[in-house]
Specification:
The chain has 293 residues and is α/β, with parallel strands linked by helices. The chain has a domain of 200 residues: 3-Layer(aba) Sandwich (Rossmann fold). 38% of the residues lie in helices and 16% in strands. It is built from ten helices and 13 strands. Helix 6 crosses helix 8. The chain starts with a strand and ends with a helix.
Amino acid sequence: MSRKILITGSNGQLGHSLVMSLKEYFDIMPTVHKKLKNSQNNVEMDITNPTQIKSVLKSYMPDIVINCAAMTNVDLCESNHNAAWNINVNGLENIIKYTNKNTLIIQISTDYIFDGNEGPYIESDATYPINYYGKTKHAAENLLIGSRKKYLIFRPNVLYSTDLSYNNFFSWVFWSLSDKKEINVVTDQSSNPTWTGILCDAIKESIILQSEGIYHYGSDNYLTRYEFAQEIANIFQLDNKLIHPIKTGELNQNAKRPIHSGLNTNKIEEEIGVTIFSTSYCLQTIRKKLMVK
C-alpha cells in the first residue's frame, strides 16, 4: 500500500506542484484553507483551526504531512505580525500536536531565515532573520526540530512555477514584459531561484529514501534579480529593454530583504543524489511545457 501524504496549502504554487508530482506515487490528500464550490478533490482544513485540523488528521491518519500553507507576502507579514505568526508558527504547532508520533512532517522554509550578508548559505550556517516573515519561518523550524517528531525541512528561495497564474517574480516579469510594460528590477539582491518542478522531484526522492533533517535547494547558479529578469526576457523572447536596473533601497519596501542570499545545495546532492539544474535550463523547460514560441 502506498504511503498516505496530506498536503496543506495545496492550492498554492508549491502545494499544487506537489499534488501533481506525487499523485502517481502516493495516496495524496490535498487540503486547502477554504474549499471552493467547484473543488471536489480538496479537503477544507485551516491549519490555524485546532478543531478542524484534529478532525481531518484523525480521519485520514497520514504517514506524511507536507506543510505548504503559509503567509508568504513579506511586506504583509511585516505589517500584520499576529496573522503571520498564527499561520506560519501556530499552524505548524497544530500539525505537530495532532499528528501521531510516527508521522513525518515536511516543513517548507525559506532562505529568509538568514540575514543575507554572506550567502550562499549551507544548512549549518548561523540563522538571523531580518524581517518578520523570516522570523516566523525560523520559529517554525525551531518548533519542529524541538518537537521530537520525524521531520524534513526544505529551504528553497525565490520560488516560481510552470503555472503562470501564481504570483511570483517570474510570472510578474513574464506578464509585465508580455504586456509591454516597463519594470524596475534590483541589481543588488542575489540568489539561486527554485523552480517548483524540480523541487518536487527532490522532495519525492527524500521521501523514497526516508531522509530526515534540513536541506537547501535551488538552481546551480547565483544571479541577481536583474540578471534573472534578463534570463526570462531572453528565453521567452521578450523585450529586455523594458527592464530597468535599480537598487533595493529605491523600492521603499516595508520589510528588509536579504541582499547576498542563495542556498548551497551540496548536502542534498551528496546525501539524496538529486540533480541541480541551472536557471536557464529550468526556464527553457518551462517554455517547452507552455509551448511558448
